[in-house]
Amino acid sequence: DAGITQSPRHKVTETGTPVTLRCHQTENHRYMYWYRQDPGHGLRLIHYSYGVKDTDKGEVSDGYSVSRSKTEDFLLTLESATSSQTSVYFCAISVGGEKLFFGSGTQLSVL
Amino acid sequence: AQRVTQPEKLLSVFKGAPVELKCNYSYSGSPELFWYVQYSRQRLQLLLRHISRESIKGFTADLNKGETSFHLKKPFAQEEDSAMYYCALSGLDGGSQGNLIFGKGTKLSVKP
């Protein structure tokens, strides 16, 4: 599993509340990513990081922010959750060039 | 613009039949292409990448630059091949290593 874990695995929250998802890796990889997976849309990149405090936006970054204060942790925050952010969120790390290893995913439901 | 198109949302075949999952891409440079698979209740995992020219679990994929395609093929489908398959393109702009662009996915269902 390339030492990548996501927490929580499941989350139910209400519209307007802040939510933070955590991705943790144990192998000191430089690149980390947050994707969301939705039926009919596949996987879409939200944000990615190429080092501590170095992050950039992906295709669907609106409504999301990220932080990476340590190599091993990449946090995804929904400042004010909306129903359109109900999705499965996957963290990934880049290994050996462009081979991505994915976490197990976080199922987020915004009611 | 870089784009990956998987025209079939669902592909249903019988066990032992050949299967081909289609993937077309749009990219102006030299592409790096991948197939990822997600079995039920499991995480996404790399199935194969075109530069490796390998066969994994009986699947192969050939990059056809003329047709801008990277179709995934298997001569004899097995029930355990039932899964969601994603084609992905490497976005090499700006050196964003690992920044993959995914298609919308094709759900393969292999019936007994």
Task: Give an account of the 3D structure.
The complex is a heterodimer of chains A (111) and B (112). By secondary structure, chain A is an all-beta fold. Chain A is 0% helix and 60% strand. Chain A has no helices and eleven strands. Chain A has strands at residues 4-7, 10-13, 19-25, 32-38, 42-51, 54-57, 64-70, 73-78, 87-95, 99-102, 106-110. In chain A, strands 2, 4, 5, 6, 9, 10 and 11 form a seven-stranded mixed β-sheet that branches. In chain A, strands 1-3-8-7 form a four-stranded antiparallel β-sheet, with no helix packed on it. The model of chain A has no long low-confidence stretch (mean pLDDT 92). Chain B is mostly beta strands. Chain B has no helices and eleven strands. In chain B, strands 2, 5, 6, 9, 10 and 11 form a six-stranded mixed β-sheet that branches. A three-stranded antiparallel β-sheet of chain B has the order 3-8-7, with no helix packed on it. Chain B starts with a strand and ends with a strand. Classes of the chains: A mainly beta (111), B mainly beta (112). Chain A binds chain B through residues 1, 31, 33, 35, 40-45, 48, 50, 56, 58, 90, 92, 94, 97-105, and chain B through 6, 9, 32, 34, 36, 43-46, 49, 86, 90, 96-105.
Low-confidence stretches of chain B: none
Overall average residue pLDDT of chain B: 89
Q: Order of SSEs of chain B, N→C?
A: EEEEEEEEEEE
Main beta sheet of chain A, described? 7 strands, mixed
- How large is the count of helical segments of chain B? 0
Care to count the β-strands of chain A?
11
Total strands of chain B: 11
> How does the helix and strand content of chain A classify structurally?
mainly beta
Major beta-sheet overview of chain B? 6 strands, mixed
What proportion of the residues of chain B form beta strands (DSSP E)? 35-45%
How large, in whole angstroms, is the Cα Rg of chain B? 14 Å
Give the helix tally of chain A: 0
Q: What is the 3D form of chain A? A: globular
Arithmetic mean pLDDT of chain A: 92
Q: In what range is the share of β-strand residues of chain A?
A: over 45%
Please tell me what the overall shape of chain B is: globular
Task: Report the helical percentage of chain B.
Answer: under 10%
Order of helices and strands of chain A: EEEEEEEEEEE
